[in-house]
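Inverse folding, one chain.
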């Protein structure tokens, strides 16, 4: 505005309007003039979609997840997958070595088959020596009737995915000292070894999140009591404490009670690390503005912890879960290997490895160490999957 003086009077003149450089067209928030379809899809995606897209780019984690999914699905049909029943014995083939699968016999395609075994006794070492008999071609049968079993202990059945030829043998991973097929026993042992980790992690996660959450949110005497309790538990050496508690289980307990007892022991001793991690995170997050706003709006502590604080570090919880499960599997395997965990007639990978305690037996029959292979594969798969889930839980990183 310009002010001029004309004979004592003041005259006001409006300034010239400036040119308007902003578009007066109505604003369209979904306009794609400046966003590509890929960018629009990304900005409109939910958090779960972002996590899934990032997880798919971690190929090793996806492959590990598929492998673990197949392993857990296999425990539903262990009886069908195993070529023999759990306690089926072959007294004529004690410590038989693994048989090789062939497709061609004398230049002709026969399909999957194995050669029969000839047994001789080495009079010097008193060791059974098995050799393939090329005159005995034993085709492998698929979706066949074999050893009878009770599916999940309820239904009588005889259907197997694959079976030996009529009157033949099929020991793809050899046999043990009682002539039992190692492959069948490893398949049955998968059910016990994998579910121990799931039940154990449910117990440890419940204790860790509840105790750590209360200590981090309230602080004060609640925090002091929980921290002193954690220090007491962590002051004991882990393996000797496992051994002592496992040895305290009554010998008169049934196998199923021993199984749940071992699961509870593993869960009760594995929550301390998670509890401290949850406590430290909540101590920092409870001072954030969103937590204060929730408190002023009248939200209860349980809702604040469960709906606002815990999701803020879901990536750490996911990584802890995927690392704790193999830790519990290894714990059960170690206890069973030492004879203080699960015991026959329960079959797990650790129980199977008790056959390999004698170094002389391992030197003569190395296939008795094969149950350690699924243990290693499962632990590695959980670690790779945990890395992928931890990165995917923070999709904006």
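Residues assigned per position:
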């Amino acid at each position: 505005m310009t002010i001029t003086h004309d004979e004592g009077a003041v005259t006001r003149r409006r300034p010239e309007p400036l040119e308007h450089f902003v578009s007066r067209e109505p604003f369209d928030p979904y306009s794609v003039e400046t966003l590509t379809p890929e960018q629009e899809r990304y900005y409109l995606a939910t958090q779960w979609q972002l996590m899934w897209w990032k997880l798919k780019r971690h190929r090793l984690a996806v492959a590990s997840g598929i492998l673990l999914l197949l392993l857990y699905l296999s425990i539903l049909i262990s009886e069908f997958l195993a070529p023999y029943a759990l306690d089926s014995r072959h007294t004529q083939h004690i410590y038989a070595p693994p048989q090789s699968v062939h497709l061609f016999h004398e230049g002709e395609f026969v399909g999957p088959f194995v050669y029969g075994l000839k047994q001789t006794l080495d009079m010097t070492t008193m060791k059974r020596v098995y050799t393939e008999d090329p005159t005995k071609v034993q085709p492998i049968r698929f979706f066949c009737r074999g050893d009878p079993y009770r599916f999940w202990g309820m239904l009588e059945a005889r259907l197997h995915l694959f079976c030996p030829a009529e009157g033949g043998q099929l020991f793809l991973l050899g046999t043990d000292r009682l002539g039992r097929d190692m492959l069948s026993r490893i398949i049955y042992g998968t059910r016990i070894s994998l579910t121990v980790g799931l039940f154990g992690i449910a117990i440890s996660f419940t204790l860790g999140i509840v105790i750590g959450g209360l200590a981090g949110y309230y602080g004060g005497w609640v925090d002091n009591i929980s921290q002193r309790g954690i220090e007491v538990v962590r002051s004991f050496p882990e393996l000797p404490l496992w051994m002592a508690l496992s040895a305290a289980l009554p010998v008169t307990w049934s196998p199923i009670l021993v199984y749940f007892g071992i699961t509870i022991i593993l869960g009760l001793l594995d929550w301390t690390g998670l509890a401290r991690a949850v406590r430290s995170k909540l101590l920092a997050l409870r001072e954030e503005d969103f937590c204060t706003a929730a408190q002023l709006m009248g939200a209860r502590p349980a809702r604040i912890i469960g709906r606002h604080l815990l999701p803020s570090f879901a990536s750490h919880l996911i990584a802890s879960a995927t690392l704790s499960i193999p830790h519990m599997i290894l714990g059960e395997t170690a206890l069973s290997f030492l004879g203080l965990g699960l015991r026959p007639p329960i079959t797990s990978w650790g129980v199977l490895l008790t056959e390999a305690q004698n170094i002389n037996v391992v030197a003569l029959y190395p296939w008795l160490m094969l149950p350690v292979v699924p243990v290693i594969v499962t632990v590695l798969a959980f670690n790779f999957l945990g890395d992928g889930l931890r990165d995917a839980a923070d999709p904006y990183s």
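Residues 66-71+184-392 form a domain with the MetI-like fold fold (CATH 1.10.3720.10). The CA atoms of residues 41 and 118 lie 66 Å apart.
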